From TrEMBL:
InterPro entries: Alkaline_phosphatase_core_sf (IPR017850), DUF1501 (IPR010869), TAT_signal (IPR006311), TAT_signal_bac_arc (IPR019546). It comes from Dyadobacter chenhuakuii. Pfam families: DUF1501 (PF07394). This is DUF1501 domain-containing protein.
Length: 475
């Protein structure tokens, strides 16, 4: 693996993979069944909601707090492990960082993972680690690797034929590393019909499922017909296979069906009771959680809600880490807890798996991990002369936290452990991304050797089909 890829090289190879996916044509569907050595396990989940903390959420500042060290001018950065006090959760002996009390009160309904280890890919780029987390494949690839949500949409199909099986809420592609983010927000070789239905702003979700202002239904239908003609004359039409062309057309037909369905009202958050709406209304992410709940009620299969990745904002805390996290916690704490409570109250949590994760963690001193340090992208002082340097700044890949609820996940369970002293790395039960993916697929009843033939070789849900479910996480 080349450890020196820059953004330009990453994009060049991602674009090449996209064209390769077109040239490859349809995956050979009969290979899927004939090459499975085992049938899929009995499912415990029907739906997945991914709550994506984009930008690198520091585990020691959130769900795995260490010794609290208050700020002092000109203090040594190496003294700082956590910049927040720890507070008890509903689980005996388990504490979260201050500001996450609401989530702490619902941990009896889920599992806390404290041992996620991100991949070593050399010079750290957020988009590369996010690509890896969402597809399970390290970039770049010669094949356009499908997003986890696309695998699930393809293998299980829609629960409700008019609701998109894969919905992505909150990520714009007009900020930051836009093209790099697009590289993994795709169904890859599986075809456009299994790709994400994008809702950049949940407060305007209804706008995603109806014609633009001033366009009546007849004009929209004419545009739909024109769209089919454009496909035939597009690069997909010219260079793609029949499978790719038909997949693109089916994706438009699905959107057209949603437009005319009663279920489209689920996208209109103005119909939510005011009391409930106010709990979720902490910003785009909070309203995204509300929309995710409403879409789960209507039969969405996979929903991703992100705090949105934009360089040096959100969880990307290269400076003002402590003060930024105060605001981030306000955005996520109430809505996530309410989402879990609402799903549980409606009897949906048993079959809905909710996963909270981030691409990697952060540390004040170490870039990468202690035995595999990498080039720092932003210089951080070792002496903290200003409050803006107080917080977890550098990228840390040797430990991290995740939360999982519902869908067969154990309740009130803690898995893994990190060291209490720097470096706060994983010391018990490390879990890597192929284990995370395969645990989710196992709960959904998708066999671990699921594969398609692409470029005359099998392409699995996890690299070489070696991912194994972490059965200790499942009840």
């Amino acid at each position: 693996m080349n450890t020196t890829w820059n953004r330009r090289e990453f994009l060049q190879r991602a674009s090449a993979a996209t064209m390769a996916a077109l040239a490859a044509g349809a995956p050979v569907s009969n290979i899927l069944s004939s090459c499975k050595s085992i049938s899929g396990p009995e499912s415990s989940a029907d739906t997945v909601i991914l709550l994506w903390m984009a930008g690198g959420m520091a585990h020691t500042e959130t769900f795995d707090p260490k010794l609290y060290t208050p700020f002092e001018k000109d203090m040594e950065g190496n003294r700082v492990l956590s910049t927040f006090k720890s507070v008890p959760t509903v689980l005996d002996g388990i504490h979260f960082s201050d500001g996450l009390q609401s989530i702490g009160k619902v941990m009896d309904k889920g599992t806390l993972i404290r041992s996620y280890v991100a991949a070593d890919m050399g010079h750290i780029l957020h988009s590369r680690h996010q690509y890896h987390w969402h597809t399970c494949y390290e970039p770049p690839q010669t094949v356009a690797a499908p997003h986890m949500g696309s695998w699930i949409a393809k293998e299980l199909g829609p629960k409700n034929p008019v609701i998109p099986a894969f919905v992505d809420i909150g990520q714009r592609f007009t900020v930051g590393e836009a093209e790099e983010l697009k590289a993994f927000h795709t169904a890859g070789f599986l075809g456009n019909e299994f790709g994400p239905f994008f809702i950049p702003d949940p407060s305007q979700g209804l706008e995603s499922v109806r014609p633009p202002v001033g366009m009546d239904a007849k004009r929209f239908e004419r545009r739909n017909q024109l769209y089919n003609e454009l496909i035939n004359n597009s690069p997909v039409g010219e260079f793609g296979s029949d499978y790719q062309r038909e997949s693109l057309k089916r994706s438009m037909e699905q959107a057209y069906a949603l437009l005319n369905s009663p279920e489209s009202k689920a996208f209109d958050l103005s119909t939510e009771p005011k009391e409930s709406y106010n709990i979720y209304n902490t910003g785009k992410f909070g309203l995204g959680c509300l929309l995710a709940r409403r879409l789960t009620e209507q039969g969405a299969r996979f929903i991703s809600v992100t705090t949105e990745y934009e360089p040096f904002k959100g969880w990307d805390t290269h400076e003002n880490g402590h003060t930024r996290l105060q605001e981030m916690k306000k955005q996520i704490d109430g809505p996530i807890a309410q989402l879990i409570k609402d799903l549980d109250k409606q009897g949906l949590l048993d079959r809905t798996m909710v996963v909270l994760a981030s691409e990697f963690s952060r540390d004040m001193m170490v870039e990468g991990k202690p035995d595999a340090k990498v080039l720092e992208q932003v210089q951080q002082p070792d002496i903290l002369s200003d409050l803006k340097f107080y917080g977890m700044h550098r990228h840390f890949t040797d430990g991290g936290s995740m939360l999982m609820f519902g869908g067969g996940i154990k309740k009130g369970f803690v898995y893994g452990k990190t060291a209490d002293e720097r470096p706060c790395k994983t010391i018990e039960n490390p879990i890597k991304i192929d284990g995370v993916h395969q645990t989710i697929y196992h709960a959904l009843g998708i066999a671990e050797d699921t594969q398609y033939e692409v470029e005359k070789r099998p392409f699995y849900t996890t690299p070489d089909g070696k991912g194994k479910a972490v059965m200790e996480l499942l009840s």
